[in-house]
Amino acid sequence: MSSMDHQGDENRETKEMDERSLSMSHGQEPNVHRVGVPPKQNIFKEFQATVKETFFSDDPLRSFKDQTKSRKLILGIEAMFPILSWGRNYTLKNFRGDLIAGLTIASLCIPQDIGYAKLANLDPQYGLYSSFVPPLIYAVMGSSRDIAIGPVAVVSLLLGTLLQNEIDPVANPRDYRRLAFTATFFAGITQATLGVFRLGFLIDFLSHAAIVGFMGGAAITIALQQLKGFLGIKKFTKKTDVISVMQSVFSSAQHGWNWQTIVIGASFLTFLLFARYIGKKNKKLFWVPAIAPLISVILSTTLVYITRADKEGVAIIKHIEKGINPSSVKEIYWSGDYLGKGFRIGIVAGMIALTEAVAIGRTFASTKDYQLDGNREMVALGAMNVVGSMTSCYVATGSFSRSAVNFMAGCETAVSNIVMSIVVFLTLQFITPLFKYTPNAILSAIIISAVINLVDYQAAILIWKIDKFDFVACMGAFFGVFFASVEIGLLIAVSISFAKILLQVTRPRTAILGKIPMTTVYRNIQQYPEATKVPGVLIIRVDSAIYFSNSNYVKERILRWLVNEEEEIKGNYQTRIQFLIVDMSPVTDIDTSGIHALEELYRSLQKRGIQVINQSTKLLYIFSNYNNSK
């Protein structure tokens, strides 16, 4: 647009227009920069290149090029099991960091797992089972160095909510457990399938704003659910919306809350929050909030045992099954109505678990500056959940709180997950009877302190400042979870994310450009108020590719800009619009529908006596002679 200074002289513009009209009347072509017709290409090769770029943009087979068959076999095995690649260079120094990190996250995961199992309406040992087998599988197949694997609060709540809609966990605990294993199996199949067929880009359709809102709503819902154990309420609603929960809380107040339970819960929640505060103030003390939950469990269990507070109405765990994971292959529903229900629930839980794990993995990978293969991660997560479903585990994924502790503890590789798994194994074998007198209130306090960080209000404020539509998506997901249910909130989040995509595709932005004073730069006059329009010339920029879905809108929007400008000029007695310049430099692609829409625009402008011109190589001509060039 630097060549447009000469247009400031209205007389010269009129003269040029007359010359163009005269040349056209004599059958001569107007002096324009015509867009060249691309050379003919092999349709099959062009389609093949498009598919390759869509599904194999990272060129995953590049390491196999020019290799012998035996080397290709080794590379293929290493691609499936990355531990064989980095394990060759593993050192004692690496192990020292992984050992400290593994022990630290184990102290955090054991009390959390027991509480998260309660969220999923499963017995406590199933939470521990899910931190034993899945981390071992992931350590062998995963590519992230920092993710800590195990149950997480949001997925546990989602799974528990969807499962109890099908089967009552109290009346039919065995059938409920079987359906949980079935859902976990299909969650793993879903994740592995997305990875194998390289469809990981599908999870990107759930926008960051929607995830922030969904996570925030789920965190508050989880915290409200913990009021049952925190206040010592015996009868509690199965619904998760805030209205039902608060009605249940206040109605139970008539029968009296257990004050001993409240004292235990409030005291240790204060302790946990204080420990978290210390960890935030001094990064070197990261281990304080990491071991605080285990210390809370030990102290509260000892306190209840000594005072026999359980006889005063303080609810305790009572029993955790001792021993490692029993096989659950025969418990998975392989036929019948519950097969379809498990399939449906598994897909939803698997996608949410996948979204959280990939987001966590990418965050820490960028921090340590290494590449994370998203599709390989999906295969690893899927494999661990498939194996987990057959070894009495429910859906496991990457935990943000544990991964953050793992990172700060100095983990070097996925061996930290192996260390954590070994500690959980020893706990299942020898220590579980000691949890008999652990009060439910302490588990509620641990969960509340863990999910507080999921309410990212700073991210919501930033979203509001940057994109109002994103903020609508964020709040829609938040209020959907908060006032309805987890699945409704998730549905709203997905719906708004897709709606935004459709709006951006079908309603691309256009802008009127003006000249920045004392420069040859042209910018959007709404963003740059000092930019001035060129008399007699209207410059419009199209900020998107032009496809069949938006071509008519682009044409109509340009005409509306023109009509508005003409009305404004008529009212101010200014020079009428004689030239229209369409800046298509941001247009990366255009299809045949777009070309025909621009041809229609060209004919409409001809009838109005407005000349479409091209003043630089960046301003593409409107294909007025497209039919002649075909």
Account of the 3D structure:
α5 packs parallel to α8 (153-164) and α13 runs parallel beside α19 (440-451). β3 (510-515) and β4 (522-524) form a beta hairpin. The protein is mostly helical and 630 residues long. It is built from 25 helices and seven strands. It has a five-stranded mixed beta sheet with strand order 4-3-5-6-7, covered by helices on one side. It has helices at residues 10-25, 43-55, 69-80, 83-86, 92-119, 124-129, 133-141, 153-164, 173-196, 208-225, 227-231, 242-253, 259-281, 287-307, 337-368, 374-389, 400-408, 415-431, 440-451, 457-466, 468-483, 486-506, 551-572, 592-608, 626-629; strands at residues 148-150, 397-399, 510-515, 522-524, 537-542, 579-583, 611-612.
How do you describe this structure in short?
60% of the residues lie in helices and 4% in strands. It has helices at residues 10-25, 43-55, 69-80, 83-86, 92-119, 124-129, 133-141, 153-164, 173-196, 208-225, 227-231, 242-253, 259-281, 287-307, 337-368, 374-389, 400-408, 415-431, 440-451, 457-466, 468-483, 486-506, 551-572, 592-608, 626-629, and strands at 148-150, 397-399, 510-515, 522-524, 537-542, 579-583, 611-612. Helix 5 packs across helix 14.
